[in-house]
Specification:
With about 110 residues, this protein is mostly helical. The chain contains 4 helices and no strands. It has one domain.
Length: about 110
């Protein structure tokens, strides 16, 4: 019995991955666009500390869910690699969102 089978409400792994990628992408943009300027121009290093921690945890969660999706679906490794690389790039998850929507529906 897998992790998804023990959930009280059935969570679709690809849907979870898509939403987590969106939140992780937002946290990356906040880190780069708000926290980093606050650190360097306003002398507030705590902004990077806390936003960086949150972004790091979201990235790790994304990686773990990506591995779970890879194990529970018949996704090719190339698709999982594309999701991983998109998570490393600013705006990457947003560019990939339309494809992930199709993957969520099982169309691609």
């Amino acid at each position: 019995m897998g992790v998804w089978d023990r959930m009280p409400v059935k969570i679709r792994p690809v849907a979870l991955l898509r939403r987590l990628a969106f939140v992780e992408g937002i946290s990356f943009l906040v880190l780069l666009g708000i926290a980093m300027p606050l650190k360097h121009f306003a002398g507030l290093p705590a902004a990077v500390k806390y936003v960086g921690w949150a972004h790091g945890l979201l990235f790790i969660a994304l990686c773990l869910v990506l591995v779970q999706v890879l194990m529970s679906t018949n996704w090719p490794l190339k698709r999982a690699a594309l999701v991983f690389v998109a998570a490393l790039l600013p705006f990457g998850p947003f560019v990939l969102d339309r494809r992930m929507s199709a993957w969520e529906k099982g169309e691609a």
